[in-house]
Specification:
311 residues; alpha+beta; 8 helices
Length: 311
């Protein structure tokens, strides 16, 4: 363990109970790809005070660190991560309906999109159906302005509670001031940590909402390889085209290295067919980029975040 990591953990352990400071934790347990070696430590912060203490410790010591959500957009090195992974838990897993305005809800950053959609459906609140099948947590979705089926998180977010990366300056930011655009938010530019989001929905019949959610789920299941671990869309949508179409046109459906494969069902996904390593996935991604560029002149850029590894 690096000295800076050890010093940070010593400081963190004064605030966070030992059972939530996990040493040498395999990150394959915390990513949707089911890939990734051990982090020197994984810390589960249960409230704002704990999180501020953790961020203060890593800032003071200069320890390598990273905030993760549900790990649904990460490819982590087989060697793991040489530092501290920080994951939100406890208070950050809560959903609260506003007493003043029943169409508004406060959703913690660690709440899964699927759980949020279920809560809103049960409570007859519409507008989040598009996101019901997006993997990952609210924090990650706000951070990257996740979207699907014509909707984006920015459509429903009215304000965001965020914290600076050193654990200071927790504040509320309006949706307008979050600078949302395609797969982008102000949080990326300023390295903000999303704590929660207030969303505004529209009252509707729960049965009607459930029907729309079910329809989108059926469409997603028919088109996407949901039965295999992946990180969702592997490459960003290039200007004037679609990554999946370019990959398919290059004849790469089913291209495989080890346990990593370009999905036969949807060529925009690289999937883990079983036992795939980070290097397997990278090898597939490199070949896809080279072949698509040779065929089309378009260089695909990864949408999946590469952690302690690179193309």
């Amino acid at each position: 363990m690096h000295k800076k990591t050890a010093k940070a953990i010593e400081m963190i352990s004064r605030t966070v109970p030992e059972e939530r400071v996990l040493r040498d934790e395999l990150m394959s347990r915390h990513t949707s790809f089911r890939i990734g070696g051990p982090a020197e430590a994984l810390v589960l912060a249960a409230d704002e005070a704990e999180l501020a203490a953790v961020l203060s410790a890593v800032t003071t010591t200069g320890a390598e660190h990273m905030i993760i959500g549900n790990g649904s957009n990460l490819l982590i090195s087989d060697e793991g991560y040489p530092g501290i992974m920080i994951k939100l838990a406890g208070d950050f897993e809560s959903i609260t309906r506003s007493a003043e305005d029943p169409n508004r809800v406060r959703v913690g950053a660690a709440v899964l999109m699927s759980r949020t959609a279920a809560f809103l459906t049960e409570n007859g609140l519409s507008g989040f159906e598009f996101a019901s099948g997006i993997p990952g947590s609210i924090g990650g979705a706000v951070f990257m302005n996740a979207g699907a089926y014509g909707g984006e998180i920015k459509d429903v977010v009215r304000s965001v509670r965020a914290m600076d990366p050193d654990g200071t300056n927790a504040r509320e930011i309006s949706g307008e001031d979050m600078d949302f655009s395609y797969r982008h938010s102000r949080a990326q530019d300023e390295d903000m940590l999303i704590l929660s989001a207030e969303m505004e929905l529209t009252a509707d019949d729960p049965a009607a909402i459930a029907e729309r959610v079910a329809d989108l789920a059926a469409r997603r299941n028919a088109k996407q390889p949901v039965s295999f671990p992946s990180a969702g869309s592997t490459f960003k949508r290039p200007v004037g085209g679609y990554a999946a179409a370019l990959i398919e046109q290059s004849g790469l459906k089913g291209y495989k290295v080890g346990g990593a494969e370009v999905s036969e069902k949807h060529s925009g996904f690289v999937i883990n067919t079983g036992g795939a390593t980070c290097e397997d996935v990278l090898a597939v991604m490199r070949h896809v980029r080279e072949k698509v560029y040779a065929d089309s002149g378009i260089m695909l850029e990864p949408e999946v975040r590469l952690i302690n590894c690179r193309l």
